[in-house]
C-alpha cells in the first residue's frame, strides 16, 4: 500500500504543493493538494474555516479528509498542510499507509517564501511572524521526522532538483 501513496510533509511554504505537482507529473500520478481538497469540500477558503471553526474545527476536518483520501485513493501524490502532524491520528495514518517525504527548510527560507507567496496562513497572523515560525517549527520538527521515510533539504534546490532527488531516494 505504501508505494501507492506518496505524501509530502513539512512546514508552511516549504514547497509541498509545487513539488508535489512536479513529482506527480514525473511519476504519471494524480496530484491532490489536501488544503485545496478541504476548501472544495467545505466550500470555504482555509482562513474562513479557521475563523468560523477555530483551529480545532479545522484539524478535525483535516483529519477526516486525510482518512477519506487514504481510504479511497491509489497511485497519488498528496501535499499536506504543515500542521497535519500535530494530530496523533494523522501521524499514525501517515506512518502506516503513506510513503512520506519531509521537505525540510530553514526558518529563514520559510520566511522569504511566505513573503513571496500570497496565500494567507491564519497561524502566522502574529506581531512577530519570525518568532512564530521558529516556535511552531520547534514544536513540529520531530513529528515531521517521525512520519517520514525520506528527508530532502530544500533550501538551495529548485523544484526540479527536489523532485529528482525524491525520485532517487524513494
Ligand atoms: C497550516 C498550514 C497550511 C494550512 C493551514 C494550517 C499549519 O498549509 O493547512 O493554514 O498549521 O501549518 P500549508 O502548509 O500548505 O501552508
Automatic annotation (TrEMBL):
E.C. designation(s): 2.7.1.71
UniProt xrefs under InterPro entries: P-loop_NTPase (IPR027417), Shikimate/glucono_kinase (IPR031322), Shikimate_kinase/TSH1 (IPR000623), Shikimate_kinase_CS (IPR023000)
Residue sites binding Mg(2+) per the record: 17
Keyword Amino-acid biosynthesis part of the UniProt annotation: yes
Pfam family, one: SKI
Keywords carried by this UniProt record: Amino-acid biosynthesis, Aromatic amino acid biosynthesis, ATP-binding, Cytoplasm, Kinase, Magnesium, Metal-binding, Nucleotide-binding, Transferase
Compartment(s): Cytoplasm
Annotated binding of substrate, by residue: 35, 59, 82, 140
Subunit structure: Monomer.
Identification of the protein by name: Shikimate kinase
UniProt organism field: Alicyclobacillus dauci
Organismal lineage: Bacteria, Bacillati, Bacillota, Bacilli, Bacillales
Name of the gene this protein is made from: aroK
Amino acid at each position: 500500500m505504501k508505494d501507492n501513496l506518496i505524501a509530502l510533509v513539512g512546514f508552511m511554504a516549504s514547497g509541498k504543493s509545487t513539488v508535489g505537482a512536479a513529482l506527480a507529473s514525473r511519476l504519471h500520478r494524480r496530484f491532490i493538494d489536501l488544503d485545496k481538497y478541504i476548501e472544495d469540500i467545505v466550500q470555504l477558503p482555509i482562513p474562513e474555516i479557521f475563523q468560523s471553526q477555530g483551529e480545532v474545527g479545522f484539524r478535525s476536518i483535516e483529519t477526516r479528509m486525510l482518512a477519506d483520501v487514504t481510504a479511497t485513493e491509489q497511485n497519488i501524490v498528496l501535499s499536506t498542510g504543515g500542521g497535519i502532524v500535530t494530530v496523533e491520528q494523522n501521524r499514525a495514518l501517515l506512518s502506516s499507509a503513506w510513503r512520506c517525504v519531509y521537505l525540510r527548510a530553514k526558518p529563514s527560507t520559510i520566511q522569504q517564501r511566505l513573503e513571496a507567496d500570497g496565500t494567507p496562513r491564519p497561524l502566522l497572523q502574529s506581531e512577530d511572524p519570525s518568532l512564530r515560525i521558529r516556535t511552531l517549527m520547534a514544536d513540529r520538527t520531530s513529528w515531521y521526522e517521525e512520519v517520514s521515510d525520506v528527508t530532502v533539504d530544500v533550501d538551495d534546490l529548485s523544484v526540479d532538483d527536489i523532485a529528482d532527488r525524491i525520485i532517487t531516494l524513494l
